[in-house]
Amino acid sequence: MSTRWYRDPSGDRNRREEPMDGQAGRRRQSGTGNRTSTARSFSKDSLKRSLSGCEDNFPTVLPVLLDVVRGPDRLAADEESQELLREKLHLLQADCAGVNNLFVELSAQLVSIDSEEKSICVTFKTFQEIWKFTTYYTTGFLGHCLEDLLLDEKVWLSSLEEDVAIEVSIQEEALNLFYKGILMQEGSLFGSCSVSQMFDSSTSGADLYLEQGDIAQFEPPFLGSGWTVLCLADGARGTAPKPALEPVIPFHQWFLKSCAESILVGNGKPACDFPLQFATGKCVATQSHDAEGPDELSVAPGDVIIIAGLLVSCFDWFTGKKEATGEVGLVKTSFVEVSSETSDSEDVFLDTKEWMFNTQKEEEIIKESIDELKRKSLNDVGLNYKLDTIHYQDSENKTRSPDTKPSPKKLRKYIRRILAPEKYSSLASSVMENEVLQDSKQTARLPCFTVHPVVDGENYTESFTPFFSFLDGQDCKEEFAVLYGLSSESLSSTVFEGHADDDELISFLGVARETARKRRLYWMQTRLCFLLGKLCAGKLKFSQARVYFEESLGIPREAFTDLRLLASIYSNLATIYLLQKNRDGFFGVAERLGALVLGVPDCLKSLEDDTVLKYMLKKAVLAHNKRAEARACYLLAKHHWMKGEGNQVTPYLERLLVVWDEAQRNEDVSPSHGYLVLGELYRKLHRLHLSTSAARRASLQPSASLSDCLGSMMLVLTTDQEESVPPRLAPYLYRSLAFIEVQEGEEEGGGGLHHRALSHQLTLSLCNCSTISDRNSALIWLAWLHIENHQPSIALDILNLFLVSTSEDCKSPQQGVVLNMRGVALRCMGDHRSAAESYQAAVDVCREYEDMPNWAVAQANLGLLFLKAGAKGLAQRKLTEALQLFSELSEENHEANFIAVLLELGQHYVDQRQLEFGKGCFEWALLLAMKAKLADYQLRATRHLCHLYEHESPDQAQCIIYNRHLIQLLRSSGNRAEEGNALEAISQLYLALGTERAYRAALDYTKSSLMIFIDLGWKEKEAYGWLKAGKIHHLLGQTELVDIYVQAAQDVALSTGDTGFILNLLEAAGDIFWDSCQDYEKAVTFYRDRALPIAVKISSAQSRLRLCNKLTEVILALKSYSEAAEFAHTAVDISASAGLRLNERVGYHRLAFVYQHLEQSELAEHYYLKALALCPSPLQFDEETLYYVRVYQTLGDIIFYHLKDPFDAAGYYHLALAAAMDLGNKRSQLQLCTRLATIYHNFLVDRELSLFFYQKARSFATELNVKRINISADQQHVSMFQHSMQ
């Protein structure tokens, strides 16, 4: 299986930013968006070899290999399908005009077609053609274009269920060499240094040094000379005979070559060491900085700065807001550091709204879809009730939040027109005209000011009053935003009147500026300077314009809050600096403007041209910052889109979507809108194949919405010139009407779901429905689609319009369907009371018409509603009634709803701890699913039973039975991942039985799961599978195989490169030998020699503590007490430094125990007392008091028997006795009283205390039925004691 054909030019070793997702360079193109596989990245070795001396081996053609695949796994189709492909290619060999035109559109030239090999050979003339071709290849457009060309009508219709596609692959080596060969022919290329290297300087005395990963411009040798290099950081030049370089990817090649040298060269390398490349949240200032102008923010060490928008590490500035004062301004990236509230953002867009290029089209798309579709189909959605099994993520909160997408007004109007055509037909055109007029009125209107001739000595204060009043204000107004965007010509002609020429207007504004300065009207003066600068620039007086713009930056006495004005000033200054070849000035302004654009998206509207955005993209490319590159491409595409420059939007939008696809992340923002915009641009450029491919890609995105799918369908209809709906539109209709259900059905293996969705694929063609019943059914289906698309408010609008259009007195079965679906929509919106009323109305309709199947569904919906509302008793009653109705039905096709209700009721019983009823419901559901052959419901019921018998009502035998059935179901569905997990689970169940036969069964299941994990490439699961198999062999006594399996697990773990995972696996390997109470030496080897050094290397305190504790125990078992003491000391030190009091206390106790075995009694006493000192006070549990009893008794024994100190021993026994009395443990009190009586009788010779404790001991002995107490001392011990006293 091949992967993407290029990566970041820095490669795995040199890249400065990891891909946004680790799978970006390895996967096939997503099955939801493309059916082609891609080649791998440029080979570094091949590039180096070819650049140094293989110029004559460049290929002249590139074979494009084709294959027919089927299914979600993209497996090769049968031979019959492959033969159909060969026949189609054979026909194209004779008449290749169509395929030739296609590849011209794809920026390639057709060379030949080989039908037997199923390949098409193409060639290229420029690297731009390779760039465009590989872009279409990576985005999946190439595969979709070939599908349009090679697949006939039957395949399009059958592919709805069989998922037929054309898979495209390209030979990696040929592609690499082709690209490099064209670059060599063109004589100049941009490349990335493979290693750090020196170049002989051609501009100064010092040699040029480029680090690994640095991008520079290279020129190949000419007439025996060496390679020439231009450093992009500072413009230095150098030469080398054979530099180690890799060409950058084609898009970077095109972009860097298209940049002007004034933008491309200079400003050095990014010097900031901010650790996060794409930061949001808050950061902390590290040094003091006084603002040098009103655009900057003054900061002091420790100031918390809120990042406005994004902080990108490769840029010098960012827009920040001081948390303490609320001031907003520019902050140098090098002045701040990360804090606990700083996060590394993965999102390229600040929000969903920012991503939308054209919101107006989104609002009209449903109406346009209905107007264009001219087909109809009958369906049964208007007859059968829907069961409320919709599960939104936090549905009620989501649908009621302010950000919820409102119902499209045009959809409501169109539905009213369908329901009452006689009322709305005459108003259709006027409604559209009114909407156009309203849209045109939304633009803010600017006042017009009269220009008075300038006469020396006159006072113009009154003349300036209305103008100053308009310009007044610190913040940006809507009128200001319009004013800033006007050109000098528009400014002179629309805002001002009464002047003969621009010079007179400039003189008038100059007097106004001077008046504002004298009156200290700073914001008016600032805006006047800006206007003067615009007018001077329009007259090509750039020096004077620059003076005005620079003056405007220094006028305000407080921070800039009109950031649109600030961005406009920066943009005009950047343009002037470039024209005057002031690179330093341009770079400084570009950095600041880039910070504004990243922080305040509206500032993008203030840009005069794209030079600053190109500068931003250049810095992102040189810094290898993929997310910054994606953001810059988005800004460039959006800028050109707002300027109406569609042809300039295309390359940047294509690159943005490529980077997005490489990231493979699930974002709230869907890329479908970008593909639709790109498709519309292709259509306007008359690249119709690409337009259709972009529409297909948009509709197949996993995150695509109903509007996205309808937009894709409309794009295909607009592109296609046929009068009728073409067969290739079937997949779009299929996904538009049932994309959510189709995805769920594919995941769960439900086959009937495809046919049900297909039966409704044309129900959106409402305008041509021949009967009222068909029209109503289509409306109901459209409402249900909106409910499934998380848009219940729109569905509710449709259903309410339907009810309003029908008679209240005459109820029909279809009204019951609408009332039931209305209840579902209301429940999804959180309005439970209204939902219950609607459900009950539906029940009444069913009762009136004796519609038993729908009655059962409505009753079940009422029960589910009460269940969600917390009314458990009512829910149980309604669900039980629904089951009664379902069980009395003789018709078929109601089993799915019956089973769904059984599963819901069963889960309710389990939650209420009525486990027997829950078991009955689940088993009943499983039997029904087996009888109806509903595989997905069999899986659901079996999973419920497995969970029940494993967790709620433990029964190992039943749990094993149902897990075995689950494995059979998963095996038949082809879900290898779930099958592997199920095999792993049942292996653990057998392992828990603890018999030899169970161990052997567990071993078989473990090996089966291991094979699956190997096939899936799940390294971690595979490693633990090997380890588990080794553990089972150890339990079976097959010790000769254990080491083999453990070594295999270790090898797999090492191949992952994940140090933390390797550490955990090595520790688990040691646990095998430690838990089995055999081969303690092997456990020590894994703990001490393998796992512990890794834990020390990665500074994992928890792992070191855990390993030291285990080593202490296992070495104690080996009776190597001195070594055990070392690890016990280490464990204590780690616990103390980490502040883990319980671990520290356990460590001290274990250390005391070790020294007790080493017969070092003083140290043992010391550490026992340390352990006691860490006990909580006061004592809360009996176990803690018992611990005191045992430790003090142990201390007494140590002092008495080893240190021969009966006095101190008696003290410890007294403390132990006090704890035992507090605990009420009479047996411990008997032992302690006996010992105290012995000590006072034989050693301390205190007859009174001896008698007291003897009587106490006798009393406890009588209660505990102990027949004899002996308080006489051992004669040997007495003599030893007397000898020690002498």
Write up what this structure looks like.
- The chain is 62% helix and 7% strand.
- It is an alpha+beta fold and 1286 residues long.
- Strands 8-7-11-10-9-6-12 form a seven-stranded antiparallel beta sheet. Strands 13, 14, 15, 16, 17 and 18 form a six-stranded antiparallel beta sheet that branches. Strands 1, 2, 3, 4 and 5 form a five-stranded antiparallel beta sheet that branches.
- Strand 3 and strand 4 form a beta hairpin.
- The longest helix has 21 residues.
- The radius of gyration is 40 Å and the shape is globular.
Largest sheet: 7 strands, antiparallel
What is the typical, i.e. mean, pLDDT? 78
**Helicity range of the residues?**
55-70%
Termini separation comes to 89 Å
Low-confidence stretches: 1-50, 374-380, 393-408, 421-443, 739-771, 1275-1286
Q: How many strand segments?
A: 20
Q: How many helices?
A: 57
Give the C-alpha Rg.
40 Å
Rough shape? globular
- The order of strands across the largest sheet is 8-7-11-10-9-6-12
Derived structural class: alpha+beta
Determine the strand fraction and express it as a percent band.
Answer: 5-15%
Task: Provide keyphrases for this structure.
single chain, 1286 residues, alpha+beta, 57 helices, 20 strands, 7% strand, disordered N terminus, disordered C terminus
List strands and helices in order, with pairings.
Layout: H1 11-14, H2 44-53, E1 62-70, E2 75-76, H3 79-94, H4 97-105, E3 109-114, E4 119-123, H5 127-139, H6 141-150, H7 153-162, E5 165-170, H8 172-186, E6 189-193, E7 197-201, E8 208-210, E9 215-219, E10 227-231, E11 237-240, E12 245-247, H9 250-258, H10 261-264, E13 278-285, E14 304-307, E15 311-312, E16 317-322, E17 328-332, E18 336-344, H11 352-355, H12 359-372, H13 395-400, H14 409-419, H15 421-424, H16 428-441, E19 449-450, H17 461-471, H18 478-485, H19 488-495, E20 496-497, H20 502-518, H21 522-538, H22 542-554, H23 563-579, H24 583-599, H25 611-622, H26 626-642, H27 646-663, H28 672-684, H29 688-699, H30 706-719, H31 730-748, H32 752-758, H33 772-788, H34 792-805, H35 813-828, H36 832-849, H37 852-869, H38 872-887, H39 895-911, H40 915-932, H41 935-952, H42 956-973, H43 976-993, H44 996-1016, H45 1019-1035, H46 1039-1056, H47 1059-1075, H48 1080-1097, H49 1101-1117, H50 1121-1138, H51 1141-1157, H52 1161-1173, H53 1182-1202, H54 1206-1223, H55 1226-1242, H56 1247-1264, H57 1275-1285
Parallel strand pairs: 19-20
Antiparallel strand pairs: 1-2, 1-4, 1-5, 3-4, 6-9, 6-12, 7-8, 7-11, 9-10, 10-11, 13-14, 13-15, 13-18, 14-16, 16-17
Protein name: SH3 domain-containing protein
Biased composition (Basic and acidic residues): 1-19
Organism: Oryzias javanicus (Javanese ricefish)
